[in-house]
Amino acid sequence: MAMTTTMPTDAQVLKLAQWLSPAYPVGAFSYSHGLEWAVAAGEVADAAALRDWLADVLAHGAGRADAIFLAAAFNAPGAEALAGVDALARAFQPSAERLLETTAQGAAFAKVTADVWPADLPALTYPVALGRAARLHDLPLVLTARMYLHAFTSNLVSAAIRLIPIGQTDGQRVLTALTPLCETVAEAATAETPDDLSSTAFLADIASMHHETQYSRLFRT
């Protein structure tokens, strides 16, 4: 399995920081990953509950699964294998909204990245597109997965600040507490393959299903 073991360069770190910045136009701010329903239902009512909810999503749900898909895309030997990884990533989504979340962000990421750094980067699910782009730009796999999971968590913390609401400081405390888990999940998942896929964050999946018919919504998912 191809992995970069040398220290990343400043240019590599900064490129990933740009790709995963809130300013990168993938529309991440418009998705809550079902968190909006969880808040409305009283499942996530404060910073402690948010930390626990996101920890489960990272370790047992979409966080770990996305890191596995990212690594599989990074290691895909050709276009056919890459398409197979992407098809599996689409099939693995538990709801229509979660499928929208990963395909819309992935298509946006692929388009802007290919426009700025011309390359063959088709519209793929988000972690698959990022994994393929990282391979094309010779970026470290584990660092890419770490920063992806941190950006994913940061976006959901930002949504929670608006939804619960909690203060900005409490939001940063939650993100800081979860950063080591982002690192741990990324390191483990990038050493795995799609054969290791699983998801047991069932309430987060159910939340995304309920959100489809939620009466009042700020977010697309």
From TrEMBL:
Pfam families from the UniProt entry: UreF
Cellular component terms (Gene Ontology): cytoplasm
Lineage top rank: taxon: Bacteria
InterPro entries tied to this protein: UreF (IPR002639), UreF_sf (IPR038277)
UniProtKB keywords: Chaperone, Cytoplasm, Nickel insertion
Location(s) in or outside the cell: Cytoplasm
Main localization category: cytoplasm
A Gene Ontology molecular function term of the record: nickel cation binding
Function according to Swiss-Prot or TrEMBL: Required for maturation of urease via the functional incorporation of the urease nickel metallocenter.
Alphabetical list of PANTHER family matching this protein: UREASE ACCESSORY PROTEIN F (PTHR33620:SF1)
HAMAP family: UreF (MF_01385)
Subunit structure: UreD, UreF and UreG form a complex that acts as a GTP-hydrolysis-dependent molecular chaperone, activating the urease apoprotein by helping to assemble the nickel containing metallocenter of UreC. The UreE protein probably delivers the nickel.
Similarity comment: family membership: Belongs to the UreF family.
Protein name per its UniProtKB record: Urease accessory protein UreF
Species name: Rhodovulum marinum
Lineage of the organism: Bacteria, Pseudomonadati, Pseudomonadota, Alphaproteobacteria, Rhodobacterales
